[in-house]
Amino acid sequence: MKKITRRLATLMLCGATLFTPAAWATSDGVEVNHLGVNNTLVRVTGNGNYLLFPVQEANDDARIHVLVDGNIVETIYVRLARSKTDYTVPYDLTPYKGKHVVFEIVTPQGRESLREAKEDACWKGLELVDALDTINREKYRPAFHHTPLYGWMNDPNGMFYKDGKWHLYYQCNPYGSKWQNMTWGHSVSSDLIHWEHKPNAIKPNGLGTVFSGSCAIDARNTAGFGKDAVVAMYTSAGTSQMQSLASSIDDGMTFDIYAGNPTLTLESEARDPNMFWNEKLGEWNLVLAHALDHEMLFFSSPDMKKWTWQGRFGKGIGAQDGVWECPDLFELPVAGSDETKWVLLCNINPGGPFGGSATQYFVGDFDGKTFKADTGKDGNIPTKWLDYGKDHYATVSWSDAPDNRRTVIGWMSNWQYAADVPTLQYRSANTLPREVGLFRGADGEVYASCTPSPELEGLRDKQIRKAEKANIGRKSCSYSLPAAYDGICEILFDIDARKSKVVAMTLSNEEGDKVVMKYDTERHTLSFDRRESGLVDFSENFPAVTVSPTFEDKGAISLRLFIDRSSIEVFGDGGRFVMTNLVFPRRPYSQLSFSSEGGNARLSNLKVYSLLND
Ligand code: FRU
Fold this sequence. Notes:
mainly beta; Jelly Rolls; Tachylectin-2, Chain A; six-stranded antiparallel beta sheet; 4% helix; binds beta-D-fructofuranose
């Protein structure tokens, strides 16, 4: 004891102290207090509405407990900037006005000393602001596809239509442009073209983050949340995955988490509940992805709260190389007949036809208990794809759409590279909305078609080409595209290739970037080559050629293309085949040229519209 006292005295005499009090460093309404190499407190003392956190994408996540008046209200994960700031993300302080807000932050390991930790770029960059700056800074942000204002987006989910409004919810990360903090973002449209961003609808809570799910309008108040309440069923992703409910009595703007959650649990991974009212049976039906078992499970319920298992579908059937996710199940008429069929959408990742994620589907019958898929001529259940591009995933439909429409929308990306695409302020767009139909192919099987939703014609601005025609030979004939509109356009044309073997259609720009599409009349396929389409080297999985069957045997097709700043969607023969692919051209494509091998072909009805989303 004596020894220690003497040593202390010696140290004090030498001017040394045994500890440094951690001090609050104040700047413009934000105080920072470093408690240790990996632990920092940030206190808000000013009046701003948002605290901006500087982000560096290459970093690991910092864990942030948000304390309001001393209690943790939520925990978020942010890639706080260390050596440089890529962008900032806002934390909304408006719900906590007049209260004490403190962020208790644990940064990732790797800092050697407190002095080094204090140098992290994020501390100097913390800023309190009154308004959010969401001005677009991204060259590749689409002009007419839905994107989040900022931050990451993956699956569309929980979409419903009510009183003239299309509600679109989506998996989002409000605190960075990579996957994390899964929350339901929310946008609303009255025409499927113009989207209004709304506050996030369902946030992570005690049972975990909020994964994909569905919404249904409870017209009979079966759940007791109120007549016409919008009820969301989603996956709570905590240590395990469980299914939970949330209800809204203000048309999907705000949701109350159901106190009795979870409502459905399994001993294995299951997610993305899609529930709907089965009119014929007078009960709720639910299809749930039994992800790792590569199958879909079916349940029924009188009240959305108690679910009874009914059946399963999928073991060993269709594409099995990845997890089964994001199901949807609906009944549709088969064009030109009195027949109806059920369609089971089954998104799978990886295992798509061109690598990574894709939407497979099955056609068959559903009796409320299980799904029975139709077999092909060979007696096997065929694997069918809703879209033959590389960037079409997690496609599901709107519930309660008007006029018996089955309107779907997808996530226009691929899990292989979604976090690496060359954008920062936001990541990922949705596909265009599409109308699903059924048709019987030449082989006797029933297939799904996807046509652009009719509202999209409202985007047309100027008609630049009016039904032009030409003979196509070896030498290519070219048409300029509306450069004044960043090449954003819709192109329609018919190709008669009965006397040709292959017709090539090439989109190109002055930089030498090109997309080559080839209609092969012998194979009855359309291919899409984006290997030289612009920026492609951000991922080895991005350069690719995708190929779709054309479902025709007549040597003629008609195509409808939608070109936005970083995507091309090709709809063939009224949506009988579809291809959605991302592209990142260094400059907009300014030319479309046609050429033919193995004989001449005929181009007709070439129409080009510039598109304007005002
Ligand atoms: C599909 C998916 C879903 C899950 C969600 C999480 O892309 O993996 O199965 O609910 O993303 O964000």
